[in-house]
Every structure is written in C-alpha cells, then in structure tokens.
C-alpha cells in the first residue's frame, strides 16, 4: 500500500500566501510524484472548539475547497473533504480518549495558550482537540503529516495514542511524523513570527488585488533610512524578494548597503511580483467558484471515498476493543 499523507486546515478563513507557499506548493509536488495517497481535510469541527460564527464557518470551509482546487489539487488524485462529513472521525476520537489522560491533555502548551486566549471557552472540546486530531490522521493510517513545528506536541499525542492502541488492543496504527514541504516558513508582514490567519495584518490573501497587496506590503515596518543592520521588517521584505524576484535581490541589497535604497521602490516591486504570481490562481478560482455543481460534486465524492476508508478503520478498532 502507498503511504498516506494527511493535512488538515481550520476553516477560519481563506488560504493565504503562507499556506500557498508553505504547504500547497509542496502538496502539488507530492501529487505529481504519485507516491502517496493524499487526504486534504477542512477541519471544520476543530474550528468550533474556539469562538466562531456559524455563517462565516459555512462560507469559509467552502472557500478553502475552492482555493485548493484553484491552486491545482486534483480531486481525482487527492481526497478533499470536510471533517464534519465523516462522523467516524468523531467516533474514533472517543475510542482514543479511553487511552489518554486528562492530565496529559491539560499539560500541552497549545492547550494552555488557547485557554489564555479564550478564557471563557475552556471546554471539553478544546481539551480534546489533540485527540480528535489524532483520529483525523490515524483513521486513514496516515504516517506523514505536513504541519509546522508548532504542531509537534499534537503529533506526539497522536504517536502516543497509536502506540497505546497497538499495545493494548493489537491495532496496526502507524506513528505519524511531521513531513516538511519546501518553503515551510513564510514570515508575517508584521516582521514577527510567521504569516497566520489568526494574526491581524500578518497575511496576504490569495484573492487580494494588486492594490490590496501593495497596501499590505507597504505597511511592513522598515527603518527611517537605508544602511546598517536590517530590522525584522526589512528581513521579511528581503525574504519575499528572494522568493519572488530572486534575480533582483543583489541589486536591492547593494542599494541598501550604499544607503540609496528607497524602501517604497522595493516594496512596490515585491507587491507587483506577488500579484503576477497569484493572477493565474485568481483567474482559475473565478471559473471554479462559478461552477457550483462541480464544487458540490468534489465535496460529495471526497466524502464518499473518505468514509469508505474511515468505516473500515472504525470497524477494525471496534472489533479489537470488543465492541463488535
């Protein structure tokens, strides 16, 4: 059997440039090689573990599927799904919860951070988030998960659960590992950390116009004058320059070192290059979004294919646990 790659993305907004460069382009390389089974999941159930608006969730999750299709993911080669369409994810998560302790979940740094961020939403759903994530991955026997280093504590929980289930009940779950794709880390426009949907003013949407991109890039903090040690914002700009206008980087660096660089010139050139790179995606997206029937069929077909795999995994687990 082919190894399986599983990727999940929360339905908190459309894909941004960081998702595209840090993950989706890597997915496309995997798709072309054809060495892996691929499941790409919009984890909408995970999205309700923190405060959300139902109408926005409903819209966002569909937009992500359209973004994936416009970016080039082929629904015939990959399985594209909504997590909520596969109830077996939640069923398996409950079975997994019997081998993990409350104390283990409460000590996870990601849980503590979310409780600080949302003190009024410290729910059982939030506490069980890593267990559901383990179910998302292991229900497809996925051994490879392309996520950032910040998700490593959750992957360790998935590995623990796989070991405990295998040792206790004789199941055959793999122990999933982080699978880094090229361009994994895309910096935030704020000059601090990585580009993220949850950080205001940190990201560029894949659907942004040239004017919107220009405005966002111009907002990247720089210095009052060129020369000397680069500020975090300037380092971010040169990272983008290396990604989108590599042949022009040395020229801009020399201007900076010579204290003649006009920051707005660098920023506008980067904005133009980003827009030029995104324009084909945006044109494809308009066509795909207009074909609602096609999008519905992709979602329906993905759910049918995923449930076939998920049902078999749950059947195996129930049998091993003495439930059937």
3D structure, described in words:
The structure is a single chain. It is globular and about 75 Å long. The chain has a three-stranded parallel sheet with strand order 1-2-3. It has a two-stranded parallel sheet with strand order 4-5. The protein is built from 13 helices and five strands. Helix content is 55%, strand content 7%. Helix 1 links the parallel strand 1 and strand 2. It folds into two domains: 211 residues, Rossmann fold; 77 residues, Orthogonal Bundle (Tyrosyl-Transfer RNA Synthetase), CATH 1.10.240. It is mostly helical and 324 residues long.
Task: Please name the defining characteristics of this protein.
324 residues; mainly alpha; Rossmann fold; Tyrosyl-Transfer RNA Synthetase; 2 domains; two-stranded parallel sheet; globular; Trp-tRNA_synthetase
Please outline the helices and strands:
Layout: E1 3-9, H1 17-33, E2 36-42, H2 54-71, E3 79-82, H3 88-97, H4 102-106, H5 109-117, H6 124-127, H7 129-138, E4 144-145, H8 152-169, E5 177-178, H9 210-218, H10 232-244, H11 249-257, H12 263-290, H13 292-320
Parallel strand pairs: 1-2, 2-3, 4-5
Find the CATH superfamily of the largest domain: HUPs
Task: Work out the radius of gyration.
Answer: 22 Å
Largest sheet: 3 strands, parallel
Total of domains: 2
InterPro entries: aa-tRNA-synth_Ic, Rossmann-like_a/b/a_fold, Trp-tRNA-ligase, Trp-tRNA_synthetase
EC number: 6.1.1.2
GO molecular function: ATP binding; tryptophan-tRNA ligase activity
Enzyme class: ligase
């Amino acid at each position: 059997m082919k190894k399986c790659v599983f990727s999940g993305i929360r339905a908190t907004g459309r894909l941004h440039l960081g998702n595209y460069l840090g993950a989706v382009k890597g997915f496309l390389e995997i798709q072309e090689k054809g060495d892996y089974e691929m499941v790409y999941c919009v984890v909408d159930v995970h999205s309700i573990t923190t405060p959300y608006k139902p109408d926005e969730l409903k819209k966002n999750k569909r937009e992500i599927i359209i973004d994936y299709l416009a970016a080039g993911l082929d629904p015939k080669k990959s399985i594209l799904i909504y997590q909520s369409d596969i109830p077996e994810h939640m069923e398996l998560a409950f079975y997994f919860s019997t081998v993990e302790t409350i104390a283990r979940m409460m000590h996870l740094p990601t849980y503590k951070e979310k409780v600080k961020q949302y003190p009024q939403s410290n729910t059982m759903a939030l506490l069980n988030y890593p267990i559901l994530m383990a179910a998302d991955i292991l229900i497809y026997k996925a051994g490879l998960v392309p996520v950032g280093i910040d998700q490593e504590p959750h992957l360790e929980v998935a590995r623990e659960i796989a070991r405990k289930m295998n040792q206790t009940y004789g199941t055959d779950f793999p122990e999933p590992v982080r699978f880094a794709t090229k361009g994994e880390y895309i910096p935030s426009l704020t000059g601090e950390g990585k580009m993220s949907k949850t950080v205001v003013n940190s990201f560029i949407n894949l659907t942004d116009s040239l004017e919107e991109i220009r405005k966002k890039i111009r907002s990247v903090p720089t210095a009052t004058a060129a020369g000397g040690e680069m500020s975090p914002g300037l380092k971010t700009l040169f990272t983008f320059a290396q990604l989108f206008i590599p042949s022009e980087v040395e020229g801009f660096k020399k201007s900076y070192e010579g204290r003649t660089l006009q920051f707005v010139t660098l920023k506008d050139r980067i904005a133009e290059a980003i827009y030029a790179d995104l324009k084909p995606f945006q044109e494809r997206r308009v066509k795909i979004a207009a074909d609602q029937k096609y999008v519905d069929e992709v979602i329906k077909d993905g759910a049918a294919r995923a449930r076939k795999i998920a049902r078999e995994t749950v059947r195996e687990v129930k049998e091993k646990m003495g439930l059937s």
